[in-house]
Specification:
Low-confidence stretches: none
Strand content: 15-25%
Helix content: 40-55%
Order of helices and strands: EHEHEHEEEHHEEHHHE
Bound molecules: zinc ion
CATH architecture: 3-Layer(aba) Sandwich
Number of strands: 9
Largest sheet: 7 strands, mixed
Distance between the termini: 29 Å
Oligomer: single chain
CATH topology: Rossmann fold
Number of helices: 8
Number of domains: 1
Radius of gyration: 17 Å
Mean pLDDT: 97
Shape: globular
CATH class: Alpha Beta
Structural class: alpha/beta
Length: 238
């Protein structure tokens, strides 16, 4: 008996993925993105920080461009060419009005029907969730509402950006309600997109190998949904 219903993405045309850091999309999310871009859906990534504080032995000035280049490679592998990286401070992301405005601006510009984030609970699969992940997710959830309210961030109206309502929020890594069915090829591209963060991953001595990690996430997701591979996601209709 299957437990998780498959996520019906036939009506999904435009997906905006909002995460805190370079690499955050690559823990299963990018495998689903590979599927969607294959199907002709338009996918855009908005990164809130440059991940400049992510490598202990390298300076932020060295790390920021390096991680941006690794993210661009990761995007190419899953068919994404629309990548925007903001410069909120890595490690110090707050769910501020400024951050919500920046995300709402992107939502009004790109006009997604679907917004994807990573888990913004206190706890994550691997332990205590990162503060930037918590604040990025909560700010994005709030910014979806802001983007649809013409009386919030009225300066965006002045920029010619009209209110826009995204239909749903997908949360990767949270308590799942659905599963995005994937093929082995999507999973493989998910693996390679994580491997693209080569120097970053080398600096994390205890990081599991992408070729083990992504198949593990998507195989257990598949078992819950009665298919070979799937990404479990929490879906919230807005
Ligand atoms: Zn992160």
């Amino acid at each position: 008996m299957t437990e998780l219903p498959l996520f019906d993405d036939t009506d999904v045309d435009r997906v905006l993925c909002v995460v805190a850091h370079p690499d955050d999309m690559e823990y299963g999310g990018s495998a689903a993105v590979a599927k969607w871009t294959d199907e002709g859906k338009k996918v855009s990534y908005l990164l809130l920080t440059r991940g400049e504080a992510g490598i202990r032995d390298m300076s932020p000035e060295q790390v920021a461009p390096l991680r941006a280049a690794e993210q661009r490679r990761a995007c190419t592998i899953v068919g994404v060419d629309d990548l925007e990286i903001l410069d909120f401070p890595d490690g110090l992301v707050e769910p501020s009005h400024e951050l919500r405005r920046a995300i709402a601006r992107k939502i009004r510009e790109f006009r997604p029907d679907t917004v994807m984030v990573t888990n913004f609970e206190l706890k994550a699969r691997w332990g205590l969730n990162h503060v930037d992940h918590r604040n990025a997710g909560i700010a994005t959830a709030d910014a979806i509402r802001d983007a649809d309210n013409p009386w919030i961030f009225t300066e965006l109206n002045d920029e010619g950006l009209e209110a826009w309502k995204a239909a749903r929020l997908l949360i990767n890594g949270a308590e799942p309600t659905h599963a995005v069915a994937l093929t082995a090829e999507h999973v493989d591209r998910g693996v390679r997109s994580l491997e693209a963060h080569q120097i970053y991953l080398q600096a994390l001595s205890d990081h599991p190998a992408p070729k083990d990690m992504i198949p593990s996430i998507t195989t257990s997701g598949g078992e819950l949904a009665g298919v070979d591979y799937a990404l479990p996601v929490g879906v919230i209709d807005m």
